[in-house]
Every structure is written in C-alpha cells, then in structure tokens.
Design a protein that fits this description.
Blueprint: E1 17-25, E2 28-39, E3 45-49, E4 54-57, E5 62-71, H1 77-87, E6 93-96, E7 100-104, H2 108-131, E8 143-148, H3 151-162, E9 171-173, E10 180-183, H4 201-208, H5 214-229, H6 243-253, H7 272-281, H8 289-295, H9 298-301, H10 306-323, H11 325-336, H12 346-357, H13 361-374
Parallel strand pairs: 7-8, 8-10
Antiparallel strand pairs: 1-2, 1-5, 2-3, 3-4, 6-7, 9-10
The structure holds zinc ion (ZN).
The site of zinc ion (ZN) has 4 residues, from helix 5 and helix 6.
C-alpha cells in the first residue's frame, strides 16, 4: 500500500473509456489496458485493468496513452478464468461459486470447501454492515482466490509479492492484484492426524475445526475479509484507510465458524487470542497509545510491536462498534468515500477521528479501557 506516492489532483475522468497505456519499467516496455481512476498533478496514473489489477504508473514510466472508443468493461467470469489459467503454472483448475473464482491445483473438495466458507463469510459480512445502514454494492469483479496444493509451491509463487517472508505467511490478500493467495491447509502435517487430505467436505471440516487449526483458518478468513471489504464498497483500494480500521475489521471477522453450514454465528464474538494479547500489553501501554494507533500506520507495520497494535486495533473496533455505533458507522462511511491515491498526514487522521468521536481523546481512552476490562 505504501508505494511511491503521486501528488494527486483528481480528475473525475470521462466515465471510464478504455485506455491503452504504454509504459517502460526497467528495460521492459508493455501496454496495459483499463480505466484511469486517477491522474495525478505530475502526470502519474492509477489504472485499473479489466481483471481488477491496479497499476500505479509514474510519470517517467509513461510512454504513450491512447483512449479507445470502447467503454471499460471488467472481464466476464469466463474470460477472467481463462486469463488466470494462462498466468498460473500448469495443472490449475477453476472452481466457481456465486462470487468467487477459485483457481486451484488441489482437490476439488478442498476448493469447494473454501468456496462455501467464503460465500458464508461474504453473506455474513455484507449482512452485518447493511443491517447497520452501510451502503454496499456487488463486487465489480469476480473475487479470485488462488489455492496451491502445497505450502512449498505457494511460497515459491508468493515470493514475487511477499519476498523472503513468504514461507511464514499462511495466505494474503493483495490490494494490487485484488486476489487472495493461499495453500491447502489440510496438507499441514501437524493437522493430518485427524484425516486424509483427499477427504470429503465433512472430513475437511473436522480436520480444520480442531483447536490446532484455529490460527491458520483465522488467517485465511482474515484475508478473505479484506478482499470482501475492498470489493463491496466498504473500503476503496489505494485510498487512505487507516490500518487500525482495515486490520481491526478483518480481525473482528476472523474468528472461524466451521460448525454452521449456512450462517456465521461468530461475528463480533470476542477474539480471545487478540483479547489476551491486548491484556498482556496493558501494563506497558503508554498514555499515548490510542493517539499513536489512530494517527498513522507505524505501529501496525512495525513487526516488533505489530501484534500489540493488532490486538489494540481489534479492541478499539470492538469497543466502538458496541459503545459508539452511530459515530463509528459515520466514520466508516466517511472512509468509504476516500479518494484514491490521496494520503493523509497524522494530523488529518487525528482530526477526522476526533470529528467522529469527539475531541476528548483522554476521556474516550479511559472509557475504552474500562469497557474492555469487562469483556470476557
Ligand atoms: Zn490484514
């Protein structure tokens, strides 16, 4: 997310004609086609291609830009499936559900199990916000999930995006490509005792419902939640959504609910591992903790303190949803209207938070801590 920034001057743009943009990156020249979402003051572009990928193009990379007579149309489900198969290593297949395109080279049963899980999450997530009065829309693109059969092949593929951290990351959502990438969790050796990986949906469920699997399943749900949030209109991609909000919401939804075949009863349940972590943080929590969490993303991005920051972000979202719902929803609505490629400084973030929740941070913080103490 924190790529080289364009100093943006937004042009509303003719309502999305297709454009062909030729750019030079390194010694490679290529042409990408899509809609220009932002033209920056310095000539840089934010372009969304027909498969939903976002390209930030620096002015010095830009070689040529041609407008087409055609309007911009996202790829259809079939076209996108075809493109995905051409990009992925040989042996991949596509399994589709109502909202998802699941590209996998593992068992069809596992792809179906994930598809069903994601659809339930999608429904639970959108119902949750719509019932609270937030306006959401259907995704513009099919939601793509890539599932590798082994952790090793996943890590090899993910290295391009994640670098050397790839093997330690169970799955991820890319804001740039809009895809979730992961591997078949039933291949994890320590979970195998409960069954064989070529199993039925019920056996997969049994294997992944064991306590030892909770964290890895939560990671997948967490990443899928990001994808839904960034495709349903709750949060724009490449806009200044504070990480304590986008991550806090993903954590709010990540608690697995593998017991119910249709619903998702656990939404908003206490996330016990995050609550424990928050409680461990409290004795050394500085008085400025709330302020530093909401002013910028530093603590969320710093691997030394991120676990505490994520726990606090979960707690803060949990508290605000319960105790300041009207203000919280108005704040989310404001964030959902953020312009792409405009990045707020810490003062503006703080101001926007105070405009929503009041000037007196100290008082809010005291109440936050008091209420969180009661949570069991
Ligand atoms: Zn996240």
């Amino acid at each position: 997310m924190g790529c080289a920034l364009l100093i943006a001057l937004l042009t509303p743009g003719s309502l999305y004609a297709l454009e062909h943009v030729t750019l030079r990156r390194g010694d490679q020249q290529q042409t990408v086609s899509g809609k220009v979402a932002v033209t920056a003051e310095d000539g840089g572009l934010l372009l969304m291609t027909v498969d939903g990928t976002l390209w930030t193009i620096e002015p010095e990379e830009l070689v040529d830009r041609k407008e087409d007579q055609q309007p911009f149309h996202p790829l259809s489900r079939d076209e996108l499936a075809k493109q995905m198969l051409s990009e992925l290593p040989a042996g991949f297949e596509v399994y589709t559900t109502h909202h998802y395109l699941i590209c996998h080279n593992t068992s069809r049963e596992y792809a179906a199990w994930c598809g069903a899980l994601f659809e339930r999450l999608y429904k639970a997530f959108t119902n949750f916000w719509v019932r609270k009065g937030i306006k959401l829309h259907d995704p513009e693109f099919p939601l793509v999930a890539i599932i590798f059969n082994t952790r090793e092949s996943y890590a090899k593929f993910a290295q391009a995006e994640l670098g050397p951290r790839a093997p330690s990351i169970v799955g991820y959502y890319s804001l740039r490509s809009n895809r979730v990438t992961m591997y078949d969790l039933t291949g994890i050796e320590s979970l195998r005792a409960a069954g064989d990986r070529r199993s039925s949906a019920a056996q997969i469920n049994q294997m992944l419902a064991q306590p030892a699997a909770e964290q890895v399943v939560a990671t997948i749900i967490h990443e899928a939640t990001h994808q839904i949030a960034f495709n349903s209109g709750l949060q724009p991609r490449f806009a200044d959504i504070p990480l304590w909000v986008s991550e806090g919401i993903a954590v709010y939804f990540e608690t697995p609910d593998l017991q119910s075949a249709k619903g998702w009863r656990n939404i908003g349940a206490v996330n016990t591992s995050r609550l424990d972590r928050f409680r461990q943080y409290l004795p050394q929590r500085p008085a400025t903790s709330l302020k530093t969490l909401i002013s910028d993303d530093k603590r969320m991005r710093d691997s030394h303190v991120a676990l505490d920051a994520y726990a606090e972000a979960w707690a803060l979202n949990y508290y605000l949803i319960r105790h300041h719902p009207k203000q919280y929803l108005a704040y989310l609505q404001m964030l959902s209207e953020k312009q792409q490629m405009l990045w707020d400084d810490p003062q503006s973030r703080l101001k926007e938070f105070q405009a929503a929740f009041g000037d007196n941070l100290g008082q809010l913080d005291a109440d936050f801590l008091r209420q969180m103490q009661k949570v069991r």
